Amino acid sequence: MADEQTTEEKAASSEPSIVVWLAILGVLTLIAGGTGAGLGLLITPEPAAVAEQEEDKAETEEEEKPEYSAGEQVTMLPPIITNLVSPRGTYIRLEGAVVFSSVPEGGTELLVSKITDDILSVLHTMTLAQIEGASGLQHLREDLSARAAIRSDGLAKEIVLHSLVVE
User: To which CATH superfamily is domain 73-166 assigned?
Assistant: First the structure.
């Protein structure tokens, strides 16, 4: 019986207590937290470098902006509403403006109505998949600008889209 008690005492004393396990867990947690904080500080760029990048980005954006001359004229288009080919029952509403490089002879009313009619016929033949996403919108804008330039014999510089709603 005495032998049993001594073996139980030896077994109990050889197992680490819960306090030791909690201490080990705490030390490992501190090491992991310190490592994460150190890596975070190494990865984060310095504020001066970020400010320089933002200034460079602002300068390039200013250079890319198109500049219009004083002789150019912006004329609003009437809202254009039509249905799309696919899917059935889908309608599109487009609002925009035409930028003319110079004032056309006889005013802009007749030319704007011809451009509006041309845009209406283009939109009527399109599907929703053709105008989805940023690239689809860019292609639509380029197509409409090219058609307006052809219709106006080069007087229309571009079409500016204000809103495009598909229902």
Answer: Band 7 domain (3.30.479.30)
